[in-house]
Design brief:
about 400 residues; alpha/beta; Rossmann fold; glycerate kinase, domain 1
């Protein structure tokens, strides 16, 4: 059952592989230059897919900014690795260079933006009046607060000189943004804080979010270009990969094994512990053999000192406690980018004997949950899912299997 769960996750990841999905969406080369501006966890693989497809005799250059350990060898598009989820100076320098080069493009050129989840942190160019140190502090506080990704990105867009449509607005060339979505709803303005999309949110929205979570504003806010701005007349934002297709790929794996999948959709959000409680209630009323498949993005509110682990492992630890050794119930939760939170695991697995094995090892599951140390719990049991970076990102993948009727 563990292998089946992991096979379903691998199928979900494969369905969002940039090397396979990006080439059909690439445009014809323009009369002038083509500059690639890539940012996100999939930036290097999207850049490599472009290089492999682009005509050898046509101009191609660019810059791809991705998370540390997510790079790939490329020839024509330079790859830079930087900090994520908290930004750093490497990302700031790369974002500044990227914006400066975009400003040199002319009307006969093409700005090909390759955008994926994680791009917000990897394009940390502060707006005038905002210090990089303050941007780091606010980002860290928001990540610990339990704020949704849409709320976090609303704040980021109003502290930035490049997000919230400003990258497209800086270009005199035609803009085509090809996007791998890691947010519920697949709105280009939310994905990587929408560097090429008009921004419907305002500075007042950003202030209200910081007030809601008790976070001090880090200086002056900057208003972003809005829908209807002439700067977007030459810009197209096209989502080329979503969580929906990945969930369908996971379902196919279970169906092939005679287990009926129930696709709950890719819009499940909320505090990881509360989502786990809701899922456990559904498990108790579902007749097996069946698999509950879901995507989306939970949040984790860190109370006190930060523990280890991300939203997927926290969801699973809470689910294991809720199910309390329910016979025939197994589950996986893993991020499709291969990294859950800040550790080295994509996620974890649970089985009917998870809590019994924990007690035998002297581990108090509830104490680990209260300390937000889901990584430590599953590491001690040998139940982490460790894959390394996948170089794509369509958000979280969860599968709960009931093997009994």
């Amino acid at each position: 059952m563990r292998e089946l769960l992991q096979a379903s996750w691998r199928a979900a990841v494969a369905a969002a592989d940039p090397l396979q999905i990006l080439p059909p969406h690439l445009p014809q080369p323009p009369r002038g230059r083509t500059f690639v501006a890539a940012a996100g966890k999939a930036a290097a693989s999207m850049a490599l897919a472009t290089e492999r497809t682009w005509p050898k005799n046509r101009d191609l250059e660019g810059l791809a900014i991705t998370r540390y350990r997510h790079g790939l060898p490329t020839r024509r598009i330079r790859v830079v690795e930087a900090g994520h989820p908290v930004p750093d100076e490497a990302g700031e320098a790369a974002a500044r260079e990227l914006l400066d080069r975009v400003r040199t493009l002319g009307e006969d050129d093409l700005l090909l933006a390759l955008i994926s989840g994680g791009g917000s942190s990897l394009l940390p160019l502060p707006a005038p009046g905002v210090a990089m140190s303050d941007l780091k502090t606010v980002t860290g506080q928001l990540l610990r607060s339990g704020a949704s990704i849409q709320e976090i990105n609303t704040v980021r867009k109003h502290l930035s000189a490049i997000l919230g449509g400003r990258l497209a607005a800086a270009s005199r060339a035609r803009v085509l943004a090809l996007i791998i979505s890691d947010v519920t709803g697949d709105d280009p303005s939310d994905i990587a804080s929408g560097p090429c999309a008009p921004d419907p949110t305002t500075c007042d929205d950003a202030r209200a979010i910081l007030l809601r979570y008790g976070i001090a504003p880090p200086g002056a806010f900057s208003e972003s270009p809005k829908p209807g701005d002439p700067a977007f007349a030459k810009a197209e934002n096209r989502v080329v990969a979503t969580a929906r297709r990945s969930l369908e790929a996971g379902c196919e794996v279970f169906r092939a094994r005679g287990i009926e999948p129930v696709n709950l959709g890719d819009r499940i959000t909320g505090e990881a512990r509360e989502v786990a409680a809701g899922m456990a209630a559904r498990v108790r009323t579902t007749r097996g053999p069946a698999a509950l498949i879901s995507g989306g993005e939970c949040t984790v509110t860190v109370r006190g000192a930060a523990g280890r682990g991300g939203r997927c492992a926290e969801f699973l630890l809470a689910l294991a406690i809720e199910l309390d050794g329910m016979p025939g119930a197994y589950a996986i939760a893993a991020d499709t980018d291969g990294i859950d939170g800040t550790e080295d695991n994509a996620g974890a697995l649970i089985a009917p004997d998870t809590l019994a094995r924990a007690r035998a090892a002297g581990l108090d599951a509830r104490a680990f949950l209260e300390a937000n140390d889901s990584y430590g719990f599953f590491s001690a049991l040998g139940d982490l899912v460790v894959t390394g970076p996948t170089r794509t990102n369509v958000n979280d993948y969860r599968a709960i299997v009931m093997s009994r009727g």
